Amino acid sequence: MKGLIVINAFDGGKNVMYKSNRMKDCLGQLGVETEIVTNDRFLAMLNDNGNVQLNCEIDFAVYFDKDKYIQYMLEKAGIRVFNSARSTELCDDKMMTHIALSQQGIPMPMTLGGALCYNDKPLSDRYINSIGERLGFPLVVKSCFGSYGQQVHLVENAEQLKDIAMQLKNSACLFQRYIAESSGRDIRVIVVGGKAVAWMMRKSDVDFRSNVEAGGKGYVCDLPDSFRDIAERSAKVLGLDFCGVDILFGNDGPMLCEVNSNAMIGGIEGVTGVDVAMLYARYIVQSLSEQGDQI
Fold it and tell me: Partners of 60 in the beta sheet?
């Protein structure tokens, strides 16, 4: 059995490499050979006959990137990919995440999908005012595509809202009610194979975002059943083999913030002592074994 661990060619930072090397080592301990490769290797392509052509000989791929096109082509060629292309696609677009999780009994902050625009004309006051009237100020503006808490803004008034909305108007974005009681804190839950396996409180004293990259720090904490339920249910609905689920503290209970199909593991392994990489490696090997038995 041979697999690939796929990472982004332009994001080879220490957190990415830690996760990738840990997965390679853990899979190796379980007797599975893997190679870490970047997504610019043209692992699969569409040939002149309109068929998917593989440029690698593998049985599976562990996908630590968000390049859904390669994922879809690998799957078309019969390769098992962890996570699936569709799951990655739903998580990569934050608005699609919320839509997919809607009507599933998962509490989330009130959310408006930004109107898609394709020119440089100013946004109307009617549009800006309607956002403020529905969500109140302050409110949160997010680019639908982003990682590490980047392009997430807290705006205090209509003037700031119009400025940020203009910056994001030609890309997908969303507007969300600000959960003030959770400012600078949330719980990050790692889910593997549908089960919560590790969790930590994230707190920041310098930013409303709790992301470690934005100044937050991780702490050992208990995981209430209500938080566990949100994390595991979200992973199930989105069809994820592995993910990180960020959950806010609302006045009336926990609220889903985001689901990350490509969550880092170094911080949470260090805080909790849980061997997340080995748990994921065992899940992958078991899944492939069960898949083989069914063929």
Answer: 3, 80
Q: In whole angstroms, what is the distance from residue 232 CA to residue 92 CA?
A: 18
Name the pLDDT band for 120 (thresholds 50, 70, 90). confident
How confident is residue 295, by pLDDT bands cut at 50, 70 and 90?
A: very low
Alpha-carbon distance of 144 to 110, in angstroms, equals 15
pTM of the model: 0.94
Q: Is residue 232 within 8 Å of residue 191, measured between CB atoms? A: yes
C-alpha–C-alpha distance, residues 187 and 286, integer Å: 28
Say which amino acid occupies 129.
N
pLDDT digits (tens, 9 = 90+) for 54-85: 999 999 999 999 989 999 999 999 999 999 99
pLDDT per residue over 6-51, tens digit each? 999 988 789 999 999 999 999 999 999 999 999 999 999 999 999 9
Burial class (CB in 10 A: 0-12, 13-18, 19+), 54: middle
- Number of other residues whose CB lies within 10 A of the CB of residue 137: 14
**Element holding 54 (H helix, E strand):** strand 52-54
Task: Note whether 248 and 178 are within 8 A (CB).
Answer: no
Contact, 152 vs 140, CB < 8 A? yes
Write 249-252 long-range contacts (CB < 8 A, 24+): 249/179, 249/181, 249/182, 249/185, 249/186, 250/107, 250/109, 250/179, 250/181, 250/182, 251/181, 252/107
Q: Which helix (H) or strand (E) holds 173?
A: strand 173-177
pLDDT of residue 106: 97
Residue (of 101, 57, 63) closest to 84 by Cα position = 63
- Read off the DSSP letter of residue 65: S
